[in-house]
Amino acid sequence: MTNAEVAVLQLAVFVLSILLGFPIWITLMAMGVFFGYYAYWDPARMGWDKAEGFEQSLEALLNNNVFDLMVNQTYSVMANDVLTAVPLFLFMGYVVERANIVDRLFVTLQIAAKRLPASMAVAALATCALFATATGIIGAVVTLMGMLAFPAMLKARYDTSFSAGVICAGGCLGILIPPSIMLIVYAAAASVSVVRLYAGAIIPGFMLAGLYMAYVISRAMINPSLAPKPREEDIGHIGFAEICWRMLT
Q1: Of 48, 79, 110, which closes a domain?
Q2: DSSP 227
Q3: Are 123 and 203 in the same domain?
Q4: Of 29, 95, 217, 231, which residue has the fewest beta carbons closer than 10 angstroms?
């Protein structure tokens, strides 16, 4: 087969495996081993054409460069000091989630932004941006805010599509605002400085969050039915000092 045919076959096998429900990590690992074995298949070098008996045939089958590549790549990942930060960031996000900090943060920001159009959407985006600094991944932000902010917005008679878009857009901030796990993995793969990547991503990340907020406010001003203004008794009222204290704690 030509390289183009192998690429098409890889894509077909990947899509079929996902549709059948296989875990992605198993699919990618199996595809890497199988197609890597095919790419390094060389009967003359492996000694397959001269093998006699079961033991020599098995030795020839295992004499493929893909297995050396697997060992070298596994060791290089294990020896990479940068990647050790990934599980620690995941643990930090787990602690923040279990401590109900995000819940209190969302309620506080909702009260602080109650005079703005689409105040609940603005609070959700601000919470996503701040929570992204403690997780670094999309899934955790989208899942938690989907359980926390999405039902609250629907209860406030927000448009369903508008609410879902706010949650998904805010969740995408998790891979851009440091500490971003994607940036850590990219830095390790491209051999670039994680600090420089973080320095280059933090301002665009919060700028994007601000643009999201400006967009939802403008949409709510143009079409108020997308995000009706909540009633005062549904939100409550606290002073500025209390808002600052809640933000700090």
Answers
A1: 79
A2: S
A3: yes
A4: 231
Domain span including residue 50: 3-79
Are 88 and 62 members of one domain?
no
Burial class from Cβ neighbours inside 10 Å (0-12, 13-18, 19+) for residue 23 reads: exposed
Tell me if 226 sits within 8 A of 162, measured CB to CB: yes
Helices (H), the chain: 3-19, 24-39, 43-46, 53-62, 65-78, 85-98, 101-112, 119-135, 138-155, 160-171, 181-190, 194-222, 232-235, 240-248
CB distance 124 to 166 below 8 Å: yes
For the entire predicted model, the pTM comes to 0.68
pLDDT per residue as tens digits for the range 169-188: 888 887 888 777 788 888 87
CA separation for the pair 232, 237 (Å, rounded)? 8
Q: Which amino acid is at 13?
A: V
Determine the Cα–Cα distance for residues 217 and 234; give it in Å rounded to an integer: 20
Separation of alpha carbons 243 and 15, rounded Å: 49
Residue with tokens 């629907």: 154
User: Among 79, 99, 117, which residue terminates a domain?
Assistant: 79
Give CA–CA dist 131/156, Å, rounded.
Answer: 23
**117 neighbors 195 (Cβ within 8 angstroms):** no
